Each structure stands twice: as C-alpha cells, then as structure tokens.
Amino acid sequence: MANNNSNKKLVPEAMSALDRFKYEVASEVGVNLKDGYNGDISARDAGRIGGNMVKKMIQQVENNMR
Fold it and tell me: CB of 56 within 8 A of CB of 25?
C-alpha cells in the first residue's frame, strides 16, 4: 500500500521535538508506545494521546499570550 499522506510539514525540523512530545504525553496518560510502528494501540488510546497533545499546546500558547 502506498503512503498517500498529504499532510505537509510546515517546519520539518520540528518533527523530532513533536515525536518526543508524543512519547512524553503517552507516558503521562499511561499508554505504552514503542519505537516504530504503533498501529496496534486502540483508537481510544491514540485519541487520548493526540487530544492531550493539543490541550498542552493550546495551554502553552495561551500562557505565552499573557
């Protein structure tokens, strides 16, 4: 299956920082991610990780606006 990911990275250099952030948030919410493929985690766990990442990013931006 070909990779049809059309998401363009606005700042490709930030990918490693986002990856570290993902692992940090996953450990905070109690989801064990392994290096590489994590397609075996549930959609609920993936949503918890992504949702908490967005929540933390919004909090950081709001704090910087003060």
Answer: yes
Alpha helices in 10-42 (DSSP H): 15-28
Maximum pairwise Cα distance, the chain:
47
Domain count, the chain: 1
pLDDT digits (tens, 9 = 90+) for 7-35: 777 888 888 899 999 999 999 999 999 98
Record the pTM: 0.77
Whether residue 22 contacts residue 49, with contact meaning beta carbons closer than 8 Å, is answered with yes
**Does 25 map to a domain?**
yes
